[in-house]
Amino acid sequence: MNPSQRVQVATSRLLWMAVVILSIPLIAISAIRFQAPHLLMQSKVLTDFDAFHIAGTMANQGQAHATYQAAATFAAQQEITGTQNFMPWTYPPPALLLTQGLASLPIGVAYALFISASFCCYLLVLRQMAKEYLPGVLIATIPTLVLTLRTGQNSFLIAALAGSFLLGFLRQRPVAGIPLGLMVIKPHLAAGFALLSLLGQRWSSMLWAALTVILSLAIATIALGTGIWPAFLGGVREAGQFLSEGYYPLFRMISLYAFFRSLGTPADIAFALHAVGTVLALVMLAITWRSSLPPRMVAATACVASLFVSPYGYDYDLTLLGLAMALVMRDIIEYATSRELIALLLLSWWATGYGFFFGAFQELSSSGINHLEPSTEWSLAAPALLALVIGSARVLRRATPRPIPDDHQARLPTKESLPNS
Fold first, then answer.
1. Around 357, how many Cα atoms within 13 Å sit in the side-chain half-sphere?
2. How far apart are the C-alpha atoms of 192 and 382, rounded to whole Å?
3. Rounded to an integer, what is the distance from CA 46 to the centroid of its chain?
4. Is the dihedral of CA 226, 228, 231, 235 positive or negative?
C-alpha cells in the first residue's frame, strides 16, 4: 500500500461513519441486556454499568458506606438482580454521587443516556486531536470501543476529560485544570497529566485543578457524610488484598503487575516490578518534555505514561491510548512502512482486545464473596502495549522535530501543538 492509499484509508469518512452507525444497535441491544435480558432469551450477567447502578441504588437507600464493603455489595447484587459477580466498589466518593444520579433512572435508560453522551464527548475530543485522521484512530482501537460500549464503563468520560485537559494545555489555557481536577473520580489515570502540568509550570492550571478537586471532595463529604472517607479507605485496602491474592480477572488487566502476577510471580515482587515500570514511564515523560519533540508528542507520552501508573489498570482504560494515537496518527501514517503499520495495528488490536476476546470464551458464572478463586489466566496485554509504544516511538523518531525554545514550558506554540494544524 503506497502512502497515498494509507492516507486515504486512515482518513476515510466512511469508516468513522460506520463505527458511529454500528454503535447505535450495539447500545440498544446492550440497554435491553441490562434492563430485560429475558427479551433476548439470555440470563442476567453483571457487567460494569450494573456495578455503577447498584452502587448508586445502595447510596440512594442510605447505604453509601456499605458500597465499600465487598460482602455488602455482593448481597446487594443478589437482592437487586438475582445474581452476583466479582465487582467490588472502589471509586472515590465523588464518583458515587454520579452513580446516585444514574440510579434514579431504570438501568437500561441510564446506561443508554450515559454511554451515548460520554461516547459523543470522546469522539468530539478525538476529532479535535486527530482531525481527518479520526477514522484511523477508531479502527486501531476498535476492541476497546466495542468493549466500553457493551459494558457501559466510564472510560469514555475519563478519556474525554483527559483529552479536554490536553487540548487546553496545548493551547495554554488555565482552565485546562478543570477537566484534570474532575478526573478525581478515577485519579490513578491522572498521574501523567498532573506531572505534565508540573513540568510545564502551569501554576494557574494546577490551581484550577486543585480547586476543582477540593470542591468535588467537599460536595461528596456534605452529601454522603464524613464517615464516607474511612469507608472508602477501608474499601481500597480490601481491594488491594483482593488484587494481591489474584481474585480480580488478571487477563482483563493491562498493568505490568497483572502480567507478572499471572505468570506466578509473588505479589510483592510483581508490585515491585510494576513500581519500577511506573517510575520509568514517568521519567520518560520528563525526558520527553525536555526534548525537542513537538508538543503533541509530549502530550501523547503523558497519555501512555498514565497507563503504566496503576497496577489496577483494565483494558477499557485504553481509551487513553486512543488519545495518544489521535495526537500522532498523522506522523505514524506518514513515516511508518507498510509492514510497520500492519505490525502496529496488530499490536494495538492485541493490547486493546486480548482481555475482551479471551473473556468471550470464558465460562460466564456468578461468584460471591464466600467462594472466590484466584485468577489463573495469563495477562498478556501489557507486553503488547509496551511493544506498541516502543514500535511507535521508533517510527516517530523519523519525524522531523520542530525547533522548540529552551523555555518552551512557558511558550508552547499554539498552532503547532495539534496535529495537522
1. 11
2. 18
3. 20
4. negative
What interhelical angle do 228-244 and 93-103 show, nearest 10? 100
d(CA 103, CA 55): 8
Q: What is the DSSP letter of 80?
A: H
Contacts of 50 by beta carbon, 8 Å cutoff, 6+ apart: 34, 77, 81, 85, 87, 107
Backbone angles phi, psi at 31, to 5 degrees: -60, -40
pTM: 0.91
Query: Which residues have a Cβ under 8 Å from the Cβ of 234 and sit 6 or more positions away?
Result: 68, 69
Task: Classify residue 321 as exposed, middle or buried by CB count within 10 Å of its CB (0-12, 13-18, 19+).
Answer: buried
Question: pLDDT tens digit string along 170-218?
Answer: 999 999 999 999 999 999 999 999 999 999 999 999 999 999 999 999 9
- For residues 339 and 322, is the Cβ–Cβ distance under 8 A? no
Reported confidence tier of residue 356, pLDDT bands at 50, 70, 90? confident
82: phi then psi, degrees, rounded to nearest 5: 80, 10
Rounded distance, CA 31 to CA 116, Å?
Answer: 11
Side chain identity at residue 128, one-letter code: Q
d(CA 158, CA 185): 8
Q: Is 44 exposed, middle or buried (0-12, 13-18, 19+ CB in 10 A)?
A: middle
User: In the numeric block, which cell numbers belong to residue 98?
Assistant: 454520579
Instruction: Enumerate the β-bridge partners of residue 314.
Output: 253
Residues 2-22 pLDDT 10s: 777 778 888 888 888 898 899
pLDDT greater at residue 119 or residue 5: 119
Report how far Cα 249 is from the mean position of its chain's Cα atoms: 17
Over its C-alpha atoms, the chain yields an Rg (Å, rounded) of 21
- Residue 233's alpha-carbon distances to 39, 67, 73, 185, 228, in angstroms, are 40, 12, 16, 14, 9
The ranges assigned to domains in the chain are: 3-363+372-396
Residue whose C-alpha cell is 453483571: 46
Q: Identify the CA nearest to 264 among candidates 378, 362, 351.
A: 378
